[in-house]
Amino acid sequence: MSRLARTRLVAVTVLLAGLGGLLVAALAEQPAPDAPPPPSAKLSTSVVVHERHATNVVAGVTFDLRSLDTLGEELILFAAAGGVSLLLRGQRKEQEAAQARERADARRQELPAAVRATAAILVGPLLVFGAYIVSHGQLTPGGGFQGGVIIAAVLLLAYAGGQMLAAGGLDPTKLLEALHALGAAAFALVGLAGLIFGGVALVNVVALGVSGQLLSTGTILILEVVVGIEVAAAIALIFSELLDQALLRGS
Amino acid sequence: MLAYVVAVWLLVVGIVGIVTSRHLVHLVLCITVTQSSTYVLLLAVGFRENGTGRAPIFADLPPGTPVVDPIVQALTLTDVVVEATVTALLLALTVQVAKRFGTVDPDELGALRG
């Protein structure tokens, strides 16, 4: 171990000991486990259930009471996916990438048929499952973020199964980029609709419907679908950029 | 109480991993371990012991049933998303570092090069 590393380890040990002391002191300040919950917990639950008609309170908090935060969160995802594309695409020559992809396509045909068949079989059911998780987020556990990641995984499975969208003359990256931008823009537009029709940005201006039914909770459902599209596209975009790097390196 | 101890343990283990890391990918994963301590902490803050709080899903609960704090659960959701994006961005930076400097050992990247 070099001298630098040893000095660093000693410094960190001292600092972590100090941090540990502070954390233990903080634990002593925690309310007792049987203390009543904070008023915010009760209030948010009753507002979401009675005034927003959502049965999944977490989704109600995320997409209604804290929807402005969720807009920021979605923009973080948007910026990160854009940043990954910028960082990884900047240095790669398009032609090289296209060649590497072609070689990889050829190699993928050599994948065992069982692997490709399993991937192809799973595409349909998982897509339905992802759509179910996205669209039922206001009723039961799930929502746009969770379902979006499942749909992104479906896109990867489609790739592994050899059913690339590119075969149909569509460039999947361009499509993903368009969906990615669309998802972010749609969230902002829903916010704008609240501003125009309700006087407050992101206020729930759509009919709330009957609690417990699929088409209920107004903008909560709309925002879940929008976020589902955004997350699926952004995660798939990040996957495909990192995958391209692996392909370039492997060739 | 145990949950708080787990959160502190994850935080400390993650930081030790970051400091002693010899590979940037390992370092990025240690950051995710460190951040996962915040999930445990947030969920522990909202949890009600002795079974007095159900999951905040009223699809099959009568209204008015005591539930755990939904706000910290929503915060945890935000936390997970942010961690995923930060990890993706850091891994992309790692790819660039490997290309440009030919090494992914943080100690060898110490000096600034123009």
What's the quick description here?
Chain A is mostly helical and 251 residues long.
Question: What descriptive keywords fit this protein?
Answer:
heterodimer; A: mainly alpha; 0% strand; B: 114 residues; mainly alpha; 65% helix
Layout of secondary structure:
The complex is a heterodimer of chains A (251) and B (114).
Chain A: H1 3-28, H2 39-51, H3 57-65, H4 67-89, H5 94-108, H6 113-135, H7 144-160, H8 172-198, H9 219-250
Helix pairs in contact in A: 2-3, 3-4, 3-9, 4-8, 4-9, 5-9, 6-7, 7-9, 8-9
Chain B: H1 2-20, H2 24-46, H3 70-101
Model description:
- The complex is a heterodimer of chains A (251) and B (114).
- Chain A has helices at residues 3-28, 39-51, 57-65, 67-89, 94-108, 113-135, 144-160, 172-198, 219-250.
- Chain A is mostly helical.
- In chain A, helix 5 (94-108) crosses helix 9.
- The longest helix of chain A has 32 residues, at 219-250.
- Chain B starts with a helix and ends in a 13-residue tail after the last helix.
- Chain B is mostly helical and 114 residues long.
- Chain B is elongated.
- In chain B, 65% of the residues lie in helices and 0% in strands.
- Chains A and B meet through helix 1, helix 2, helix 3, helix 4 and helix 9 of A and helix 1 and helix 3 of B.
Helix content of chain A: over 70%
Helix content of chain B: 55-70%
Query: How many DSSP H or I helices of chain A?
Result: 9
Find the count of extended strands of chain B (DSSP E, 2+ residues). Answer: 0
- What kind of oligomer do you see? heterodimer
Average pLDDT value of chain B? 86
Number of strands of chain A: 0
Strand content of chain B: under 5%
Enumerate the spans of chain B where pLDDT stays under 50 for 5 or more consecutive residues. Answer: none
